[in-house]
């Protein structure tokens, strides 16, 4: 009896992972040992570090599959793109108002042309011959005035880099079924070879420790099993200290990473070129998405990318990612410079996401992002930032984001600005700031005065995010992008909005900007009873929005959104009261009838 084929699935996006899992259950000889999400290099990185003994073949798609081909030691199968897949995406973009181009590889370009002819659509098609070629094709599309890229994960990734909107070509269930059948047809010839391979590798995997060798460049040249990155990095950091050790000289080291302790034994090999053998005993557990340090949130690029995907924000092809990319494309000269940037906008204009996107995409990328909220900017923290030799402001590989500067009291605002301005000539990191201004006249002038003080004193450039009510022409595109994202994430099948629904959205005032647009569209999609979002349902939701605003008219200016979670409503109320008490936490806690520790705990939450 033939054994089951163990498949490692690497999906470029979440919905493909879900479909892989569901379809695999229909095949008695397929064992999907794991289905993971990894786009492009991330997918290849997963394969590099995944235990080879646990799978027989790899299943992936498009550009991600090409990257995996470069590193995989086992067969890699590709999920094809079928006619129904192509027709679904091309039908959805019929309502898009800008120039559209389709980027695809030669193996599907003829199919794309045929589907376009069947649908009587004359979309331009650029053929991509490799993932290296995709970047130039996307750049060329931007230069020719195209506004929407339809393509695989490689193309949509580069679309975000060049400030273009994008939609991902998605493979459906039938495509995945085809791929599993291909695996079963081919794998019977590899069964006997694979058995021999597993027998050869088994004796290398019995040690309880992580054992590997590393050269002077920090590259692992031998390992008995997958080595977690944290262990690899900890040993790399030891190399300068170990460089003067003689051949066969042993060393013992310890490294603390978070709550974990690494016990590291090392010995320099007796070889012509420097090589060290490491044996590491450690208990590994997954860390959180970021570290809290001296009152600052510290993100690595990987942490922030994972966090953004969990929030469905800045990932390639996502709704907010497209909004951010469109904004930053107008300021590319500023984004890719080294000068400080001030991101300003009204409530709900995604200022923090814009700042995160600058950190992730700017040239001369930094390794770490230190994020400091205005409500956390105490005298003690400012002393650390401005005068400590360990301050991230004086590090070459960091970016420091001062967000929500509107929450600073007048005194703290002035002190902060003067001290930062004084040390700014010596600062080596990238400095970003965000400021939320109010469009109500009685507070707008104060906000504008503060914004001008920041710009003049720090000599920084401003990226002002225009409120949604001033970008009515973009609402149709934003709506289609959000619908596409939700179809991809949740398996819905919405194909557009009725003309009346679009007119209602374009005539609405959007006091909470893209946050509110996202919330309204999400509610409409969740309650939709047809493939179209109707004018009747949009009108009902907008009426409910107005009722909520009227019902909160006496609460802190009436901008607390009661459609949020209870936890977020609580957070917004405390923020408002804190602002009214001139950022005095003791008075705020007393007024709200809670302890200061409770207040502090709530304010530390990141929404």
UniProtKB/TrEMBL annotation:
Transmembrane segment boundaries: none
Record keyword ATP-binding present: yes
BP GO terms, sorted: regulation of DNA-templated transcription
Cited InterPro entries: AAA_lid_NorR, Homeodomain-like_sf, HTH_Fis, P-loop_NTPase, Sig_transdc_resp-reg_PrpR_N, Sigma_54_int
Keywords of the record: ATP-binding, Nucleotide-binding, Transcription, Transcription regulation
One GO MF term: phosphorelay response regulator activity
Leader sequence residues: none
All residue ranges annotated as the Sigma-54 factor interaction domain in the record: 334-526
Descriptive protein name: Regulatory protein, Fis family
Origin species: [Clostridium] aminophilum
Record lineage: Bacteria, Bacillati, Bacillota, Clostridia, Lachnospirales
């Amino acid at each position: 009896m033939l054994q089951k084929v163990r498949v490692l699935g690497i999906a470029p996006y979440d919905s493909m992972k879900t479909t892989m899992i569901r379809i695999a259950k229909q095949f008695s000889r397929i064992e999907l040992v794991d289905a993971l999400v990894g786009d492009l290099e991330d997918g290849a990185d997963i394969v590099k570090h995944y235990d080879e003994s646990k799978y027989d073949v790899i299943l992936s798609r498009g550009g991600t599959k090409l990257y995996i081909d470069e590193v995989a030691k086992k067969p890699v199968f590709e999920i094809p793109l079928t006619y129904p897949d192509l027709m679904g995406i091309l039908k959805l973009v019929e309502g898009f108002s800008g120039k559209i181009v389709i980027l695809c590889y030669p193996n599907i370009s003829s199919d794309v042309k045929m589907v376009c002819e069947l649908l009587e659509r004359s979309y331009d098609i650029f053929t991509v011959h490799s993932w290296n070629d995709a970047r130039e094709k996307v750049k060329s599309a931007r230069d020719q005035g195209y506004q929407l890229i339809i393509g695989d994960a490689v193309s949509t990734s580069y679309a975000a880099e060049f400030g273009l909107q994008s939609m991902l070509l998605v493979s459906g269930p039938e495509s995945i079924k085809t791929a599993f059948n291909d695996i079963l047809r081919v794998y019977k010839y590899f069964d006997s070879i694979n058995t021999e391979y597993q027998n050869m590798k088994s004796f290398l995997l019995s040690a309880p420790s992580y054992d590997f060798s590393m050269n002077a460049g920090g590259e692992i040249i031998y390992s008995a099993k997958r080595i977690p990155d944290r262990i690899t990095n900890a040993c790399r950091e030891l190399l300068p200290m170990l460089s003067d050790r003689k051949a066969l000289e042993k060393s013992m080291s310890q490294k603390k990473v978070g709550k974990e302790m690494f016990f590291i034994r090392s010995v320099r090999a007796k070889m012509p070129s420097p090589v060290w053998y490491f044996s590491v005993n450690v208990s590994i557990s997954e860390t959180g998405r970021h570290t809290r340090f001296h009152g600052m949130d510290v993100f690595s690029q990987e942490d922030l990318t994972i966090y953004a995907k969990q929030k469905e924000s800045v990932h390639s092809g996502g709704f907010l990612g497209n909004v951010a990319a469109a904004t930053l494309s107008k300021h590319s000269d500023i984004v890719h410079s080294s000068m400080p940037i001030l991101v300003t906008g009204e409530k709900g204009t995604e200022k923090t996401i814009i700042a995160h996107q600058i950190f992730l995409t700017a040239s001369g990328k930094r390794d770490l992002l230190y994020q400091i909220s205005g409500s956390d900017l105490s005298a003690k923290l400012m002393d650390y930032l401005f005068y400590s030799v360990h301050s991230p402001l004086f590090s070459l590989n960091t970016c420091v984001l001062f967000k929500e500067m509107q929450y600073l009291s007048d005194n703290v605002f002035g002190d902060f600005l003067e001290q930062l301005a004084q040390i700014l000539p010596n600062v080596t990191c990238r400095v970003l700031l965000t400021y939320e201004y109010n469009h109500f006249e009685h507070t707008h002038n104060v906000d504008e005065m503060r914004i001008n003080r920041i710009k003049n004193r720090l000599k920084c450039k401003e990226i002002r995010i225009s409120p949604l009510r001033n970008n009515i022409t973009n609402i149709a595109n934003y709506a289609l992008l959000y619908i596409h994202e939700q179809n991809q994430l949740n398996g819905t099948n919405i194909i557009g909005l009725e003309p009346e629904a679009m007119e209602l959205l374009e005539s609405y005032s959007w006091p909470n900007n893209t946050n509110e647009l996202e919330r309204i569209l999400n509610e409409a999609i969740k309650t939709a009873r047809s493939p179209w979002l109707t004018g009747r349902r949009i009108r009902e939701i907008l009426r409910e929005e107005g009722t909520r605003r009227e019902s909160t008219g006496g609460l802190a200016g009436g901008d607390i959104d009661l459609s949020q979670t209870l936890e977020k409503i609580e957070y917004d109320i405390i923020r408002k009261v804190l602002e009214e008490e001139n950022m005095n936490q003791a008075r705020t806690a007393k007024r709200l009838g809670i302890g200061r520790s409770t207040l502090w705990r709530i304010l530390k939450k990141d929404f």
